[in-house]
Design brief:
single chain, 206 residues, mainly beta, Jelly Rolls, 6-stranded antiparallel beta sheet, 2% helix, 38% strand, globular
Length: 206
């Protein structure tokens, strides 16, 4: 389990969403976005980063990953995206032909797993509900099963964000009965908070 060590607020600007690929401005379907280097997202102020120190031994994650977030928003609706990242060492010289041949592996931020939850469905997919503005709220996100080894010298990083466009359509961040019928006035920039007692739970093979 990785505990998130500080309460952090970030602005989710509806006019400048986090893209799901660095290439989104030039190519609608970018090359292998699931293995895209996530440094482009790590540089953004609306993507929160939490990471381990440099690992002194190999760690193999296996099975479920559960993000247990405690969050708040100034609005009444929000999406939550969690990504598990394998950060390669800054001095890594090897290349990986299965990823992207134009990039070196030095400091490569490899997305291992990722998932999104539209916050209105945090308690039930049958009965969506709004957030209460500024109220601390539990949001649990089950990521895909994993079997991945974070090698000695690497770091395990968690990225948390609220937009992932256009892979995930924009949430207006104000609650409407049907998001696909939202008016322009419904789309508003909001401030989101992640609290200190959030955590990421996973199993490590010995």
């Amino acid at each position: 389990m990785i505990n998130l060590h500080s309460e952090i607020k970030f602005i989710s600007d509806i006019k400048h969403p986090v893209p799901y690929s660095e290439d989104i401005k030039t190519v609608f379907t970018p090359r292998k976005y699931m293995t895209d280097d996530q440094r482009f997202a790590a540089r953004r102020p609306d993507v929160l980063l939490f990471e381990t120190p440099i690992l002194n031994e190999n760690y193999t994650l296996a099975g479920d990953i559960l993000a247990k977030l405690k969050v708040a928003t100034t609005g009444t609706a929000a999406d939550w995206i969690v990504k598990v990242i394998d950060v390669h060492p800054a001095n890594a010289e090897e290349n990986n032909d299965e990823l992207q041949d134009h990039l070196k592996m030095s400091n490569y931020h490899l997305m291992v797993r990722s998932e999104v939850l539209r916050g209105r469905f945090r308690n039930s997919f049958e009965k969506p509900e709004p957030f209460t503005p500024n109220k601390k709220t539990a949001v649990n996100i089950k990521l895909q099963d994993v079997f991945h080894t974070f090698k000695k010298g690497h770091k395990l990083q968690i990225q948390i964000q609220s937009t992932w466009f256009p892979l995930i359509d924009l949430n207006p961040q104000t609650y409407v009965a049907n998001i696909y019928k939202a008016d322009e006035k419904d789309f508003k920039t909001q401030t989101h908070t992640v609290f200190t007692d959030s955590s990421i739970e996973f199993s490590v093979l010995k």
